[in-house]
């Protein structure tokens, strides 16, 4: 029997992580690089990406572009592929939540949310699938949410995009898994990121959210390492079209 630890080794793989300038995307880049992957960190903020690349060293590169700009997709994909070749692993961690109440949702806010949270993961994946097919191996990890299945105040656009991620993940699996490409999603609970700053800046609200989990606390960034590595590696070779909730049991109660 082979050493089970080898199932999680990403040596020789190239991973592209969107939203890598902060939060869970940044943590994903660090975790996958420590597992042996070469990582391409993508976001809009050049300075934050430069800092992350410097921290990770020669195994990392960065691309400062807007992934929601569909008209620039070709240039984006070329820039992502330039440092290490086409990615074997795609982690779609970029996201936005405008927090507009239902009666105040603007066309701009709606379009911005769906473009970044739902359209970008599909079209970026679609662009790199041919290279994955040629290798017979690929991993796509989308980011779902508590709002994939639950409605939160001020979250109608965000929740719609994350509900869409659920079906997008299943449809990706149906389309591409026979080529050795798995597609799954991670659904984070409450983690301290820029997107949830409004939650964690309110101690009473953060404490209330923690009490609604089975474990009794909110997430820490390192809680995401194991689940993400599982879905990005050979350890999950027979797992596809699934949503893994990493929420401390919030959705179990």
UniProtKB/TrEMBL annotation:
Top-level taxon in the UniProt lineage: Bacteria
A Pfam family recorded for this sequence: adh_short_C2
Gene Ontology terms describing biological process: fatty acid elongation
SUPFAM superfamilies: NAD(P)-binding Rossmann-fold domains
InterPro entries linked to this entry: NAD(P)-bd_dom_sf, Sc_DH/Rdtase_CS, SDR_fam
MF annotations from Gene Ontology: oxidoreductase activity, acting on the CH-OH group of donors, NAD or NADP as acceptor
Family per record: Belongs to the short-chain dehydrogenases/reductases (SDR) family.
Protein name according to UniProt: Gluconate 5-dehydrogenase
């Amino acid at each position: 029997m082979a050493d089970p630890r080898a199932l999680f080794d990403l040596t020789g793989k190239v991973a592209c992580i969107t939203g890598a300038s902060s939060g869970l995307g940044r943590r994903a880049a660090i975790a996958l690089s420590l597992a042996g992957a070469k990582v391409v960190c993508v976001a809009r903020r050049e300075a934050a990406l430069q800092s992350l690349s410097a921290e990770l060293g020669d195994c990392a590169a960065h691309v400062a572009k807007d992934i929601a700009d569909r008209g620039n997709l070709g240039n984006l994909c070329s820039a992502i592929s330039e440092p290490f070749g086409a990615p074997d692993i795609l982690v779609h961690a970029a996201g936005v939540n405008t927090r507009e109440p239902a009666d105040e949702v603007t066309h701009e806010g709606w379009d911005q949310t769906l473009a970044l949270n739902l359209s970008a993961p599909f079209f970026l994946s679609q662009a790199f699938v041919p290279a994955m097919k040629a290798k017979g191996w690929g991993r796509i990890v989308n980011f779902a949410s508590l709002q994939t299945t639950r409605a939160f105040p001020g979250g109608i656009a965000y929740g719609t995009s994350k509900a869409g991620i659920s079906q997008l993940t299943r449809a990706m699996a149906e389309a591409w898994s026979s080529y050795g490409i798995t597609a799954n999603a991670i659904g984070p609970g409450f983690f301290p990121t820029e997107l949830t700053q409004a939650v964690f800046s309110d101690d009473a609200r953060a404490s209330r959210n923690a009490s609604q989990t089975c474990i009794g606390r909110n997430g820490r960034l390192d809680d995401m390492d194991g689940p993400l590595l599982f879905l990005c590696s050979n350890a999950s070779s027979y797992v596809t079209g699934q949503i893994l909730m990493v929420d401390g049991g919030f959705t179990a109660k």
